[in-house]
Amino acid sequence: MSFSEIQSKAAADWKSLWESNKPLILVGLATCGMAAGGNATMQAIKEALAKHNIDANVMPVGCLGLCYLEPLVDIIKPGRPRICYSRVTREKVAELIEDYLVKDNPRPDLALGTIGDGAVEGIPKFFELPMLKPQVRIILDRCGTIDAENIYHYISRGGYNGLSKALGMQPDDIIKEVEKSGLRGRGGAGFPTAKKWQEARRSKATPKFVVCNADEGDPGAFMNRSVLEGDPHSVLEGMAIAGYAIGTPNGYIYVRAEYPLAVKRLRIAIDQAKKLNLLGPNILGSNFSFDIEIMQGAGAFVCGEGSALMYSIEGKRGMPRVRPPRSVESGLWGMPTSLNNVETFANVPNIVVKGGEWFAKLGTENSKGTKTFALTGKISRPGLIEVPLGIHLRQIVYDIGGGIPHSKTFKAIQTGGPSGGCLPTNMLDTPVDYETLGKVGSIMGSGGMVVMDTDTCMVDTARYFLAFCRDESCGKCVPCREGLPLMIDIMERITQGKGKPEDIDRLNELGKTIIASALCGLGTSAPNPVLSSIRYFREEWEAHVNEKRCPALVCKELINFYILPDKCAGCGICVRACPVDAITGGKRMVHIIDQSKCIKCGTCLEKCPAKFSAVKKVSAEIIEVPKEPVPVAAGVK
Amino acid sequence: MVTETELRKQIRDIIAPLKGRQIVLIPALQAVQEKIGYVPREAMEEIGELAGVSPNTVYGVVSFYAQFRYIKPGKHMVKICLGTACHVCGATGLVDSLERELHIKEGETTKDDNFSLETVRCFGSCALAPVVVVDEEVYGNVTSPKALDILKKYQ
Q: Is the whole model's pTM more than 0.90, yes or no?
């Protein structure tokens, strides 16, 4: 089949699905959808359709990004707009199928929005919703709309146009187009993609390699996973274009072990692309051949670092090496290698089709295009978002994320994963671009954003990130291997109320030394969360050190739980719930926590009925309670 | 109980398809662990032979990567995510609760071989934090009481 024949078939398939006289039902079945019960929803839909004898097409799709509203189900009834329904649990399915498909009531009360043309009374437009309006979806355009396991769906939505066009261009012209676009590495470092490709192209040594870094190891980040699960061909197409531009038939994609679904969908995608001659020998009848092999990681965060990743592909311990030489000179098996991130590759087909200038219109002067972010933590609307670079953090947290849930207050936003920094309220008007985030002590990173509220302890959080990097340190260079544990020792002392006044400055000094002397990106950025935390939240650190107080009431050694004698009704719920039997007191007797036995798990606080709210958590404060159980106060019932 | 000869044969059968491939070592270890649940010493020897490296080198790789286990895991693998979002939303409390409930520490297996408890760094389901995964099933927004209920399903 020629490419135009493939395109015609794809268009016909797509039309027959979307403009058929049968209803079409889309079920969000990325990892997040499944975790929210998507498979049960899918099953329930099939049962409901069978029960009502309805002939419909049911299709699994990737992630629309609204993780907090999963499972998401879209229904497209013939002649009606596409309606997206949220939190469609098993129970809701039966209602929805009966009401909408049988009785033609679109149930605006259950609907989230309509997508595409047409409107339904009482249902807003999906992309006009507050969390979606500020977004610009290019990378995520197809996620949640196409079946990721069907290559024709991708092709019908413009897929492989970029590769087809690229094969008619000179490789240097492709690189020029990417240069014009201003595309920078989406893995976090922000290296200009065109420059990397140019260097790899110029290198005389062969074989060369194109490697896709899908080792998305930052905790709190799942942008790449969503793209791989929802639109895998966009990455394969970008890699093939890179292979053509650089002049190599060899592609590898390194996916982390924790993403089994992404691996499965990539395998299917590669097989399908090969069958249509969009990968493999002589792609679309040209002289260019390109093959992609999948390599699964084995659970080592440091393998996200370029040289470590390549050692890992070679089957070695993933320990970074000294650079230079950079991997474009000496990468996989010592040969020139262009290593780019999933999202970088996914941007390429559009740049080839629409031109570098189109891409460069989005974003800021030095940070072009859009970027996907995983917005999580203490936020009302967690999920996957795509925004033009240059957007302010405030817009992300409040307009898109809907602010902080449970009427709590914003405290900090962590960008850039465990190597990034925590930025406080007065930095919320910081534009999100590579340079600005760097200047304020954080990094762009791959795109994880974790929001923290006033219940989050900044000392504990900084310790968490540092402990993460300590555990993941490969142990090769001394500053990282020995320096990080030293810093943690100090921080643990601080969280245990044994901090000394000089500790904070000591941490600053140690952190700066590690940054200046460690070998790879992991070590040189590991102290960032601590340094940024001290820079912006010094008062909180000083409270831990000087007053032995944890203002957020998190650090276990610094907090206590008390049962307020004037509020306790002596109901016995906490006595029974306490896992270590630290609470005494019979029926209608004021309960008392034995502080020496208490493990500070908070179960009593969780279990105490709201009408009593008798359990109080405090730090550096002693509440007077009776020594022995006494009868409950008069009037408490 | 399988004999060593049987175990070696089983391992050789698992890794045979990788013979002659450019990338052998880690995929072979992954294949063995997937089939028999862990990487026994015999596998390191057999894989070393296949990959043309010493068993020591293989051990060096096994010990480097968090994915590989040296001992047979329990019937059900309980993994608690300790990613950033899960940490901020209270995952450490879940570790405490499950350790107490199962009478084991993280990385151990219960006496009846029913549960193994592991912590992992981020499944990428952060919007559902805190997340617990039992075998292949992902549970979101898990609280301590909910975690104990989940365990009951696998008792």
A: yes
Which numeric CATH code is attached to B76-153?
3.40.30.10
Which CATH class for the A458-546 domain? mainly alpha
Residue A243 backbone dihedrals phi, psi, to 5 degrees = -60, -40
What is the predicted pLDDT for the residue at A213?
Answer: 97
SS3 content of chain B, % helix, strand, coil (to 5): 50, 10, 35
Contact A376, A382 (CB under 8 A): yes
* pLDDT value at residue A637: 66
- Residues of chain B numbered 18-77 and touching chain A (CB < 8 Å): 23-27, 29-30, 51, 60-61, 64-68
B contact test, residue of A311, A316, A373, A375 with most B CBs within 10 A: A316
What tens digit of pLDDT does each residue of A462-495 get? 999 999 999 999 999 999 999 999 999 999 999 9
Q: Which CATH superfamily is domain A14-128 in?
A: Glutaredoxin (3.40.30.10)
- 3-state SS record for A240-292: HHHHHHHCCCEEEEEECCCCHHHHHHHHHHHHHHHHCCCCECCHHHCCCCEEE
State the span(s) of chain A assigned CATH 3.10.20.600.
Answer: 370-453
What's the DSSP call for residue A397? Answer: I
All CATH 3.40.30.10 domain ranges in chain A, comma separated: 14-128
* Residue of chain B whose alpha carbon sits nearest to that of A607: B145
Tell me which residue in B84, B138, B144 faces A31 most closely, judged by beta carbons: B138
Q: What is the pLDDT of residue B74?
A: 94
Report pLDDT for A634: 74
CATH architecture of A559-619: 2-Layer Sandwich (3.30)
Which chain B residue's Cα is nearest to A458? Answer: B88
Q: Does A267 touch chain B (CB under 8 A)?
A: no
CA atoms of A408 and A416, how far apart (whole Å): 24
CA distance B87 to B84: 5
Fold of A160-360: Rossmann fold (3.40.50)
Once rounded to an integer, what is the mean pLDDT over residues A100-111? 95
Q: What does DSSP say about strands B132-134 and B76-81: parallel, antiparallel, or unpaired?
A: antiparallel
Six-digit token pair at A496? 């245990």
ipTM reported for the complex, 2 dp: 0.91
Q: Does A86 touch chain B (CB under 8 A)?
A: no
